[in-house]
Each structure stands twice: as structure tokens, then as C-alpha cells.
Specification:
This protein has 18 helices and 26 strands. It is an alpha+beta fold.
């Protein structure tokens, strides 16, 4: 499962804003590994540099040195709308002259195809196949004169999820959709202001966390300071998977540090699905905290049964067939000395298609595990996401096609237990009605087309 991107923005005269953005994107790399980019502004013009690859692959000292200015926005991408090509790398620079903006987007616009056609009929041209360019052109198409009202105009037309950082020649904006699906927070650094998908990015650049940007809020930062504009919010729909998997465990969302929330998920699994076993392990790194929670509640010894190669990331070198056949062994290596003859409880964050979990179970049993009991922090995923997660179609979701006993047999585990929705809500310790749990329940916050193609705008463009 992949989530659609990390965004960042900084307004800090006198600071090297491109370098600050680089290190913030480094902290947000987990949110997207396909491409990275930075746009800067100096009051007169905007410039952008974006390429395919990880942050450390994209930027050099020379490229950062050329990105001058006193404000910047940055983006890490995983594509949920539009293919993985350099033309779709963000931030996107859209417009002409003084009517130019740079936009970085985390989320997914459900009515993008309709808006694309409408804007095309009005004479707006598109060079990418992303819904981000739809957002940018929608803002530019507004009859309003000032940028805040132009953004408001777009917000009233957009359906879906979006956390945005936007640059004009002289203003930095942070925008969060009225549902608050994706996170966005505000901080200060050396007298300037920063906006980021997650608070962990602020920690890495020495910024102070101030607060989260509210659902439906527009924040603008200029030489005169910061202003806030609030749009009407009818229902909140924060993505529950930010707590289970997407966000880093050292981030704070809705006032809740994620690490103890994930520990509580493990404790909930131990309460709901106890089993006699010798060892507990979390699949690194996303389920490590939950593994600790399960061990603590069940009083079963915690161990590292799998070691993760943390340097397996996006690469432009294609593996040969022999390496490709190794599959999950490229990412994990078991410790036979710890596992041999043991009954092991394995905690993982989720099962989506059911392609990786059987490999993990097989790997552990080949290493000598006597029994493997899978425990999953997310309830069964039976419905696809249309709000910024590249998950799968419904026909690819294993829990939409099989019962839990059938999934257990398919993955080769000795037992299988999912955390219940009530157990998940208890672990997060926030009101249930603020979350989007459509991937578990099918209750989407807005009407959606049940099968959507992430390349639909590419088809329209051609």
C-alpha cells in the first residue's frame, strides 16, 4: 500500500530555504519515493527543480545553490493520479507572468476528470496527467482578484482530499481540505514559518511545532505575518491509516503521538486475539511499536525475528530474474537461531492484496519457526480508497474476496487475527466520527465511482 506524498513549505527571509526544504523532505521520504522537487520564490519570480528518485538522489549542492529566494515549497511523490514520470514530478509550476503559482499536493481529487474537461473547454492547457495541475488551473480560472479568494473558489469546486502548499511570487499558502483527510501542520523556525505534512519534518530542521492546520483552513504567510481563513466543515474524515501505517511514529496528528497509539494497537490485538506462543515480533518497521504493545500485554517475550534492510528503496537498476525471485528476502532476513522450534506471534500493520504476507510466513517457517500466528493492526480491508491511497481495486483486495479462515489458509499461518474497528478506535483514543474508515466499511465521506483509474487524466490528455 502506498500513500500519496509529503508536502512542505517555508517562509523564512535570511535563511537558506532550499536547504531547509531538502532536509524536511528527507524526513518525509516515507510518504513518497518516486520523485522529489523544490520550488522557491524571491518576490519577483518562481523557479522549480524536480526529478525522479529519492531526495538524496535528486538534489546536489549545485541544484540547491541555484534555488534562491526567501520562501519555498517541496514535495515527495507517490503517484495516485497520473503515472510515475518526470513530467508529473512536483511541485508544479502553472500559469504565466505574475499569474504563476507553484503547487505541491498530497491527496486525490475525485472529480478531477470532470474539472479537467471543463478547464480544457475554457482553453486551459495541461502538460501533466495529475490532478495537481487541475487544482492549479482551477485556482487560476477563478474570477476573484486576490489569491485567498481564488483558493476558496477552487475549494468549493474540488471533491476529494488535498493538503497543499502553494507559492506565489510573494506568499506561501497552506491549504487543507474540509474533511481533513491528510495531515498538515504549522511551525516556526528562526522567525519564519513552516508548513509540513507531519510534525517529524519540523523536528529535523529545528522548527517548533505550533499547531495543526485545521480541516477547511487556508493559512497565508507574507512579509506582514500569518493569516488564517476558515471554510465551513460539515464532516471530518481523517484517514485512519495515518495512525496505522503512513505517518512516522514520532509525528503528532490530532494531538496524539503515533508511537503510543501503535503500541496500544498491539495491546488491543493481545486482548482480542490471545494465543499460546514463545515469541512476539513486529514486522519492521511499521509494526515494531505494535509488537512491543502485544508483548507487554501478553507477557510473551519480544524478539527480532526479522532484520530489515533499511537501504532497500527506489532504485533505477532493475534486478535480474534471480534477484527478483528472492522477493521479500531482499527486504527481510530471518534469524534462525531465534526462531528455531518456536511458536511466533507476528504483528503486521495490514494485509491488502495478500501478496507479501505469505512470503513472510514462509520465510519464518523456513527459518525454523514451529508455528506462525499473524496479528494485523488494521481491520480487514474490503473497499478501495479514492482519497489519496494507491491501494488496489476491490477485486484485488483479499478480504473482499475471502473469509478470514480462507485468508489464514492462503497465507499459510497457523492462526490469523485482525484488530476490530472498536479496538482500533480505542487504541487511537480519539472520537470515532472524525475518521474515514471507508476501506473497512465502504462508508465514504463523499460519493465515489467504485472503480477509478489513476491514469484517467493521462487517457484524457492523449
Amino acid at each position: 500500500m502506498h500513500e500519496c506524498c509529503g508536502v512542505f513549505g517555508v517562509y523564512a527571509p535570511g535563511e537558506d530555504v532550499a536547504r531547509l526544504t531538502f532536509f524536511a523532505l528527507f524526513a518525509l521520504q516515507h510518504r513518497g519515493q518516486e520523485s522529489a522537487g523544490i520550488a522557491t520564490a524571491n518576490g519577483k519570480r518562481l523557479q522549480v527543480y524536480a526529478q525522479m528518485g529519492l531526495v538524496s538522489q535528486v538534489f546536489t549542492e549545485d541544484s540547491l545553490r541555484q534555488l534562491g529566494g526567501h520562501m519555498a515549497i517541496g514535495h515527495n511523490r507517490y503517484s495516485t493520479r497520473g503515472s510515475s514520470r518526470v513530467i508529473n514530478a512536483q511541485p508544479l509550476l502553472v500559469g504565466k507572468g505574475s499569474n504563476t503559482i507553484a503547487v505541491a499536493h498530497n491527496g486525490n481529487i475525485v472529480n478531477a476528470e470532470h474539472l479537467y474537461q471543463e478547464l480544457s473547454d475554457l482553453g486551459y492547457t495541461f502538460r501533466t496527467s495529475t490532478d495537481t495541475e487541475v487544482i492549479a488551473n482551477l485556482i487560476l480560472s477563478s474570477p476573484e482578484k486576490d489569491w485567498v479568494n481564488k483558493i476558496r473558489y477552487a475549494m468549493h469546486r474540488l471533491q476529494g482530499s488535498y493538503s497543499l502548499t502553494i507559492l506565489t511570487n510573494n506568499t506561501l499558502f497552506g491549504v487543507r481540505d474540509p474533511f481533513g483527510v491528510r495531515p498538515l501542520c504549522l511551525g516556526t523556525v528562526n522567525g519564519g514559518w513552516v508548513i509540513a505534512s507531519e510534525s517529524c519534518a519540523l523536528d529535523h530542521i529545528g522548527a517548533n511545532f505550533i499547531r495543526e492546520i485545521e480541516p477547511g483552513e487556508i493559512v497565508s504567510v507574507t512579509k506582514n505575518g500569518i493569516d488564517s481563513y476558515q471554510e465551513e466543515v460539515s464532516r471530518r474524515a481523517v484517514c485512519i491509516f495515518e495512525y496505522i501505517y503512513f505517518a512516522r511514529p514520532d509525528s503528532v496528528i490530532n494531538g496524539r503521538l503515533l508511537y503510543p497509539a501503535r503500541q496500544a494497537m498491539g495491546e488491543g490485538l493481545a486482548q482480542e486475539h490471545s494465543v499460546e506462543a514463545d515469541l512476539v515480533m513486529g514486522v519492521p518497521d511499521s509494526a515494531t511499536a505494535a509488537g512491543i504493545g502485544y508483548s507487554r500485554w501478553s507477557d510473551i517475550q519480544l524478539c527480532e525475528g526479522l532484520l530489515k534492510n533499511r537501504y532497500v528503496g527506489r532504485t533505477f537498476i532493475e534486478p535480474d530474474q534471480r534477484i527478483r525471485d528472492l522477493g521479500v528476502k531482499l527486504k527481510f532476513n530471518p534469524l534462525p537461531l531465534m526462531l528455531d522450534g518456536k511458536r511466533v506471534v507476528v504483528i503486521d500493520d495490514s494485509i491488502v492484496r495478500g501478496t507479501t504476507t505469505p512470503q513472510v510466513v514462509k520465510l519464518l517457517k523456513r527459518a525454523g519457526a514451529k508455528e506462525v500466528h499473524m496479528r494485523i493492526c488494521a481491520p480487514p480491508i474490503r473497499y478501495p480508497c479514492f482519497l489519496g491511497v494507491d491501494m488496489a481495486t476491490r477485486w484485488e483486495l483479499i478480504a473482499a474476496q475471502k473469509t478470514i479462515p480462507e485468508i489464514r489458509d492462503f497465507i499459510g499461518a497457523d492462526s490469523l487475527g485482525y484488530l476490530s474497528i472498536d479496538g482500533l478506535v480505542k487504541a487511537v483514543a480519539l472520537p470515532k466520527d472524525i475518521f474515514c474508515m471507508a476501506c473497512f466499511t465502504g462508508d465514504y465521506p463523499i460519493p465515489v465511482q467504485l472503480e477509478m483509474d489513476k491514469l484517467v487524466l493521462e487517457s484524457s490528455a492523449s
